[in-house]
Write a structure and sequence with these properties.
This protein is an alpha/beta fold. It is built from twelve helices and 21 strands. Strand 10, helix 6 and strand 11 form a beta-alpha-beta unit.
């Protein structure tokens, strides 16, 4: 079949394009953004063509897919509709794929990408699996029966999915542009859970998850004793985290993973439970966790002399908090500098106080202008990055023109955090650091 993916550089759409290509389909795409994005890596490897002008000739049997992040009046979406092509939402295509395999669906406000990566890493080296990860990585082989899917709650995408096993890592207020309040989000996750056929693996430490009435058999995991699987004795060193896992009060095993922070340990525990339930031996789980490499833009480190840069997808206050805490734990002797690019005006308006609180974990804070391609500033006239900065005594604005200010910290770990494109700022700073030590 032939697919034309609108907004193909988006993390979910890029992954879908790679997945469809691997299943033997002919795939092409359109995007408004000409600058290279990290999500293009898989597209480039597969030589999937990307077009930037809304005049591509399409064959009549082409299926067009798009994300709800794309506005209905987008010129290319309007053009293909007017030409009479079959148009399906991104979530509808993914939902159809979940019915073709034994699907393990990983959901939650935070931790989806890492948990999906952990599960797929273990399964890929044992039973074999297809995977769909929200950092632009997708891989499929027709003969695989297992499909590990990162399942996003944005615009209720995941309600179109029909998984065999589901993970819920946590539930918090997020995507306020499409959810009324936290109760709306909890109810949506409850609906998602009801679509799961065999088993739910959920973090019982999260009070919002505990409010859900599950109709499918459920396993609770966490740090608290009232869970079915409990993590104890967490130890952190320069190589990562080690911990014990107890199953119904009995020691199941000791594990090590090259990840930092209690949130990463909980993500790892979810992956242990899922792969154990699929029949993977404990010794193999232990071995493959130890050589795990995290997903793109998840606490990715680079060392240049006495400087460490960290690139992380954190864009919610909780994610910023745990990223900075992990950096502090790993590099306690270094000055901790946070560089944050806010994404969307609605999220900034609703969470500016929480952003401020989280960012102040750092010794010094820098914030860029808001980066948003799906909302208009005109609809949020008083929402700027200064809502955050005005609450941070050690906070400053930063841009490409002022990035050299970061050079004043000679022994630092600098965390660049955003779901928007902050890489150019990071790369410019790294270039300046390299030049300064020559």
């Amino acid at each position: 079949m032939k697919y034309y993916c609108l907004g193909i550089k988006g993390s979910g759409m890029a992954t879908l394009a790679c997945f469809l290509h691997d299943l033997g389909n002919q795939v092409s795409g359109y995007d408004d953004v000409k600058d290279w994005k990290f999500t293009e890596k898989g597209l480039d490897e597969r030589e999937i063509p990307i077009f930037y002008q809304a005049n591509l000739h399409l064959e009549k049997d082409t299926i067009v897919t798009y994300s709800k992040a794309l506005k209905e009046d987008h010129p290319e979406l309007k053009r293909v509709r007017e030409l009479g092509f079959l148009v399906k939402e991104y979530s509808e295509i993914v939902g159809e794929l979940t019915n073709q395999f034994q699907t393990i669906s990983v959901s939650g406000t935070h931790g989806k990408t890492t948990t999906t990566s952990l599960i797929s890493h273990i399964l890929n080296h044992t039973l074999g699996c297809n995977y769909f990860i929200g950092d632009g990585r997708g891989h499929a082989e027709k003969e695989n029966s297992l499909f590990v899917l990162e399942s996003d709650e944005f615009n209720r995408h995941f309600l179109a999915y029909h998984p065999t096993i589901s993970v819920i890592t946590n539930i918090e207020l997020e995507h306020t542009e499409c959810y009324r309040d936290i109760e709306d989000i909890i109810q949506t996750f409850e609906t998602f859970a009801s679509h799961t056929k065999e088993l739910l693996v959920v973090c019982g430490d999260n009070e919002n998850i505990r409010k859900i009435h599950f109709s499918t058999p459920v396993i609770y995991y966490g740090l608290k004793e009232n869970n079915d699987y409990v993590v104890k004795n967490i130890q952190v060193d320069q190589l990562g985290s080690s911990f014990d896992v107890y199953e119904q009060g009995n020691l199941y095993g000791h594990f090590q993973v090259p990840l930092f922070g209690k949130h990463m340990v909980l993500n790892t525990l979810a992956s242990i439970i899922v792969t154990k339930k699929l029949g993977i031996e404990k010794e193999k789980i232990e071995a493959y966790l130890m050589n795990f490499h995290n997903a793109e833009r998840r606490f990715q480190e680079k060392v240049i002399g006495n400087i460490v840069t960290i690139d992380d997808y954190a864009h919610h206050p909780t994610e910023i908090k745990v990223t900075l805490e992990a950096a502090r734990a790993k590099y306690p002797e270094k000055t901790l500098v946070a560089v944050f690019k806010p994404n969307t005006y609605s999220r900034t308006k609703d969470f500016y106080q929480d952003f401020s609180d989280a960012l102040q974990i750092a010794d010094q804070v820098y914030v860029t202008e808001i980066d948003c391609n799906r909302e208009s500033q005109e609809d949020y006239p008083n929402v700027t990055s200064h809502l955050i900065l005005d609450l941070i005594p050690q906070g400053k604005m930063i841009s490409d023109e002022t990035v050299s200010e970061l050079l004043q910290y000679p022994n630092a770990v600098v965390c660049f955090m955003s779901c928007a494109n902050i890489q150019h700022l990071k790369e410019k700073y790294e270039q300046l650091v390299e030049e300064s030590i020559k």
